[in-house]
Design brief:
Layout lengths: L6 E4 L4 E4 H6 L6 H4 L3 E6 L3 H10 L4 E5 L2 E5 L3 H5 L2 H17 L1 H15 L5 H9 L9 E3 L1
Parallel strand pairs: 3-5, 3-6
Antiparallel strand pairs: 1-2, 4-5
Amino acid sequence: MLLPQAKAFCIYNRETVTVHDFCLCKIDSYFYKAMEKLVCHIKERSFLARLAARRMNSQQLAMVIGKTIHLYGVSREEFLRHPWWVRHEVCHIMQYQELGLLPFLWRYLWECKKVGYYANRFEVAARAAEKNAAIVNKVVFS
């Protein structure tokens, strides 16, 4: 169910849009409509996630690079048992799809530097997507 009150800032067209629109596709793009499924990968015990967990001072961490969810301190099964967490990371995958690998990483890191992790617009959108069950409808985990 779409939550009309959940809003996010779409960097593609510089407008505030629903989280559903932000996380699923560019507003005027045919990409999501034509997409049959989005295949995502899960990497357990990821070295990159371990480094990020140390930086964030966390025992468990999930992070996305491209179409891969990197896990540290949590198993694939445990991660998949938490729908809100899966939706959060899937939103990041869709953000990568929208912007591309390097542009997303650059903008994400710049945003973190500018406003911090919590206020980062990509994180704000992903936290809002945690309540949107429809975001995972076309996702397949390999």
